[in-house]
């Protein structure tokens, strides 16, 4: 049986059924398999079996209200159809539904169905249409003990009327108003309303019952007056109102509460300045405000201790003290008489409290002194850098440092978490502005200053690119999950030609921009500076092959980098290609912008781009707004430029020291990190052999330092600067080490299961730490559940020798591929193999401007890609079903027969051509789509076109997130959390009436 609770009755009579705007989509109840789900139908009460139809939620509610008996309900809806009908009616009625026999409210379909089977009570019709909620049996009003002596007493507290029975009420009316023709209402008047004079006792009786409200309700919009009341009076007002209404709103913000203590605690602190909030001394339980707390603590715990001579006799006589019992324990050998305050009495007549008051004085605290707390308390604080001692959340690492790990991040979609988010954002903006001021004042190293801006000549057009003739897989935007089967790719799917983009829209004002880049996306990077028209520059690197990624020979293939221009208007954005950069150093495996803003607005610098190539060379280009002067609106006539790199950084040859090295060519570079501090002279690249190559451009380019230790158990895979001169190196066997690029010494090591991953990514603009991903899987509740791994944040800024580990709410199925934090609002974006783009924010990700930690963790799904495939024709499915049934019958009749004939496996679509014919993507933008999954049956060998491999964020005041993956499609979404909240809508000022006009020309494959 499901639990039931007292719920306000709802007006759902058959004559007046109020339908809601719930969706007509019905979920699959437990116990019904997917195979039988499509043939389950609900039949109307009066129709024949031939006229079967499916009910919407509103029709389910109307049908349910027409039921009068259990026999009618049982005969009309056999089997599991009862639960389906109740589930639809529950959705349409707001989540609760009364039994049509006894009018008892229940909140679950299964609980209501089980209740109806056992319920044989008659329906209480007078309880169905009540305006006031039905009180719980546990919350019946207590009889009034206060004697009402005058009318003035009722006028001061009219709610006393609600606690009287009808006989006493009528007696009071006759006593206080002997003249029946003139009866005045003594309820507290509402604003703009005046009650009339009543001329009959019966009319006055009904009027007062309807007009008088609990005293707590009369203080709505008067929270300051309510806080001034005595605490016992406030508790009584809330308790009396809670017994009547079950749920009460906050007097300040209107948030509903169902428990009196939680409501009282919230009302005393809602929208109250911090210095005026109530405070209770943790030593003596003295109650005051926070502004008076410091002065009280000075007297409550004085620095000057009492003299030993004054208390020597008392301490010598008294032993253990028990303040609760008020008794003292006499030590052995002590005198039977003791003098306190000049009075000598037997020891048995003194209590411990009297002895302590004589020792420390009656005005001082007489409780046992506690350990003095630190300035920030005993809790862990990242902003203060405090790791508490004596907690089980601390472990010691191999290098002797303390590691404090917070518990798992709990996602709270509540008002308390969102209310703290705007204050958190203010500190983030302050830290970002401070970083920009400090970084802009820093000079560049001499080698970067010597690079002058240049204009790149057009070498060819994009019509000669190897991927220009490609088209994308089909995709379409969906509001609900498509559970149907398709034998061909649906006609509603759209396809894009290479280097083309399109904007898609949901039914509401929600948009996503999609661009096809011609191949699986390898890297996405947004330049730190924009064009003169505020368009941002996005560099995109793709793989040439969908199956093997790098193709046949990656060292001889041309390296191509696409440059796109991104513009935004409110929540809408547009993408258009700018030009293609071509290099002759093999495939490009990574591209990284130097995160340096312009020193002045008149400069044309967009940024310095470091390019990692398959031949092992690191190329550095300077990109300006004037580098490519001309562009084209046609994707096949875009300019392709082949400029010489401004700087070429080579690895040492042989790059491994020693006589055993036989390498003639440097290994490919797979990851690049560039330090923004000092003069930006440090560049770190990780090669395919697992070493980290460190260049100091201020000294020499020919003698880089190769960081490769024989004690490493696995090769390095990724490098990322985390602030200052420290770089985080991640290793394949889920290990992260932090090195100082100036001394090459390891300063931190993280190798804990489920937090240390094989990738580390930093955000030096805001945080002095790094994000770890691709760690061990989190434990699942059952074997059928798909394993997930998450993201953690490691912060090493502590006052003690240790670091913090903060688990984040981002979790992906199978694998998390990439993470990026927005420098504008500190939103953490992650993408994974499951095709989901998750956005989260955590109050413990503090910057240098934060003075406290915030206790919130928010997350939403900004994008979900569901891979779909064509299904087997119905004739083949039926033949397969019959063959399976015959095989099972034959096995039952002849258990010793030979093995069944092997049936051919379902086809797998693992190439680009097969995916075009048989696969497509469903795009979901609603936040509730985070629980959707791709088709699991026969999907392990298909090309995972839904996988999102890379994610990046921009630097403008309107934050956007860019993501792309295996399908070659790049998606652009707003990078905000709960933007529909009025406190957070300032990031995107969207007008109420938005003109529907396209931002970019739509180009499709005909």
Folded structure, characterized:
The protein contains 18 helices and 45 strands. The chain is α+β, with helices and mostly antiparallel strands and 1006 residues long. Among the domains are: 34-134, no CATH class; 308-331 and 339-360, no CATH class; 446-779 and 787-868 and 930-936 and 939-987, 7 Propeller (Methylamine Dehydrogenase, Chain H), CATH 2.130.10. The chain has a six-stranded mixed β-sheet with strand order 11-12-37-36-35-34, with no helix packed on it. The protein has a six-stranded mixed β-sheet with strand order 13-24-20-19-18-17, with no helix packed on it. Strand 44 and strand 45 form a beta hairpin. The radius of gyration is 36 Å and the shape is globular. Mean pLDDT is 76; it is low at 1-53, 122-141, 302-334, 363-377, 411-416 and 979-1006. It is found in: Nucleus. One of its GO terms (biological process) is transcription by RNA polymerase III.
């Amino acid at each position: 049986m499901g639990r039931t609770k007292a719920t306000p009755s709802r007006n759902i009579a058959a004559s007046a059924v109020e339908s809601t705007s719930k969706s007509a989509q019905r979920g699959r109840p437990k116990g019904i398999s997917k195979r039988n789900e499509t043939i389950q139908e609900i039949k109307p009460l009066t129709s024949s079996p031939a006229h079967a139809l499916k009910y919407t939620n509103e029709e389910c509610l109307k049908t349910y209200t027409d039921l009068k008996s259990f026999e009618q309900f049982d005969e009309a809806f056999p089997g599991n159809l009862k639960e389906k009908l109740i589930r639809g009616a529950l959705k349409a009625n707001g989540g609760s539904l009364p039994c049509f026999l006894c009018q008892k409210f229940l909140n679950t379909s299964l609980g209501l169905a089980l209740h109806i089977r056992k319920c044989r009570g008659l329906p209480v019709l007078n309880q169905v249409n009540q305006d006031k909620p039905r009180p719980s049996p546990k919350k019946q009003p207590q009889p009034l003990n206060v004697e009402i002596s005058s009318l003035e007493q009722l006028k001061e507290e009219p709610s006393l009327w609600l606690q009287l029975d009808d006989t006493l009420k009528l007696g009071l009316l006759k006593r206080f108003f002997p003249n029946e023709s003139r009866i005045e209402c003594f309820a507290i008047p509402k604003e703009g309303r005046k009650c009339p004079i009543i001329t009959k006792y019966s009319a006055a009786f009904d009027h007062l019952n309807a007009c008088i409200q609990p005293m707590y309700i009369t203080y709505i919009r008067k929270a300051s007056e309510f806080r001034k009341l005595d605490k016992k009076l406030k508790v009584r007002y809330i308790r009396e109102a809670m017994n009547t209404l079950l749920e009460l709103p906050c007097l300040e913000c209107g948030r509903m509460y169902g428990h009196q203590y939680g409501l009282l605690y919230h009302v005393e602190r809602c929208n109250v300045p911090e210095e005026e909030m109530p405070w209770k001394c943790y030593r003596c339980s003295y109650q005051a405000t926070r502004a008076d707390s410091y002065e009280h603590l000075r007297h409550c715990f004085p620095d000057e201790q009492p003299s030993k001579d004054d208390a020597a006799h008392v301490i010598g006589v008294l032993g253990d003290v028990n303040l609760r019992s008020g008794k003292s324990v006499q030590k052995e050998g002590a005198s039977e008489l003791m003098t306190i305050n000049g009075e000598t009495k037997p020891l048995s007549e003194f209590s411990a409290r009297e002895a302590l008051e004589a020792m420390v004085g009656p005005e001082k605290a007489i409780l046992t002194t506690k350990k003095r707390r630190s300035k920030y308390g005993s809790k862990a604080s990242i902003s203060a850098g405090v790791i508490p001692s004596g907690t089980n959340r601390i472990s010691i690492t191999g290098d002797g440092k303390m590691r404090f790990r917070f518990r798992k991040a709990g996602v709270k979609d509540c008002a308390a978490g969102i209310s703290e988010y705007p204050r958190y954002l203010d500190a983030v903006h302050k830290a970002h502005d401070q970083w920009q001021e400090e970084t802009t004042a820093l000079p560049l190293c001499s080698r970067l200053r010597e690079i002058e801006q240049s204009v790149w000549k057009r070498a060819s057009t994009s019509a000669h690119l190897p991927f220009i003739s490609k088209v994308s897989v089909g995709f379409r935007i969906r509001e609900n999950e498509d559970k149907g089967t398709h034998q061909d790719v649906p006609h509603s799917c759209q396809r894009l030609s290479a280097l083309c983009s399109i904007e898609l829209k949901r039914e509401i004002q929600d948009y996503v921009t999609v661009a096809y880049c011609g191949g699986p996306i390898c890297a996405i990077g947004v330049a730190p500076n924009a064009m003169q028209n505020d368009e941002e520059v996005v560099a995109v690197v793709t793989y040439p092959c969908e199956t093997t990624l790098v193709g046949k020979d990656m060292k001889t293939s041309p390296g191509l980098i696409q440059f796109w221009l991104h513009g935004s208007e409110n929540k809408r954005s547009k993408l258009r290609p700018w030009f293609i950069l071509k290099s002759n150093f093999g495939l490009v495996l990574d591209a990284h912008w130097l995160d340096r803003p312009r020193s002045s607005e008149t400069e044309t610098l967009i940024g310095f781009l470091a390019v990692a190539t398959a031949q092992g060379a690191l190329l550095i280009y300077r990109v300006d707004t004037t580098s490519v002067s001309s562009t084209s609106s046609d994707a096949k006539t875009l300019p392709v430029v082949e400029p010489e790199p401004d700087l070429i950084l080579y690895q040492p040859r042989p790059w491994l020291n020693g006589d055993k090295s036989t390498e003639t060519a440097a290994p490919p570079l797979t990851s690049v990190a560039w330090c923004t501090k000092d003069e930006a002279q440090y560049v770190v690249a990780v090669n395919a052999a697992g070493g980290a190559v460190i260049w100091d451009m201020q000294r020499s380019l020919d003698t880089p330092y190769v960081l490769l230790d024989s004690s490493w158990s696995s090769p390095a895979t990724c490098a990322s600067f985390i602030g200052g001169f420290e770089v985080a190196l991640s290793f394949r066997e889920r290990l992260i080490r932090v090195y100082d690029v100036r001394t090459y010494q390891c300063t931190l090591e993280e190798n804990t299961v489920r937090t240390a991953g094989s990738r580390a990514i930093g955000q030096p603009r805001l945080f002095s730490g790094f994000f770890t991903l691709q760690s061990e899987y989190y434990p699942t509740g059952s074997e059928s559940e798909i394993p997930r791994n998450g993201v953690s944040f490691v912060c090493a800024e502590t006052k003690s020798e240790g670091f913090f580990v903060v688990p984040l709410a981002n979790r992906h199925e199978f694998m998390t591929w990439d993470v990026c934090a927005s420098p504008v609002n500190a939103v953490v974006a992650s993408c994974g193999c499951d095709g989901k783009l998750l956005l989260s924010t955590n109050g413990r990700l503090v910057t240098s401007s934060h003075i406290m930690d915030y206790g919130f963790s928010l997350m939403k799904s900004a994008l979900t890609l569901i891979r779909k495939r064509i299904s087997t024709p119905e004739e083949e499915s039926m033949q397969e079903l019959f063959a399976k049934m015959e095989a099972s019958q034959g096995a039952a009749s002849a258990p010793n027969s030979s093995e069944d004939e092997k049936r051919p496996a379902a086809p797998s679509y693992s190439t680009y051509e097969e995916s075009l014919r048989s696969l497509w993507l469903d795009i979901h933008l609603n936040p509730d789509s985070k629980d959707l999954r791709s088709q699991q049956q026969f999907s392990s060998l298909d090309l995972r076109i839904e996988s999102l491999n890379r994610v990046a964020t921009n630097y403008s005041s309107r934050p956007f997130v860019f993501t792309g993956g295996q399908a070659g499609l790049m998606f652009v979404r707003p990078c905000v959390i709960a933007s529909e909240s009025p406190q957070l809508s300032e990031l995107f000022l969207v007008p109420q009436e938005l003109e529907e006009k396209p931002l970019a020309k739509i180009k499709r494959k005909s």
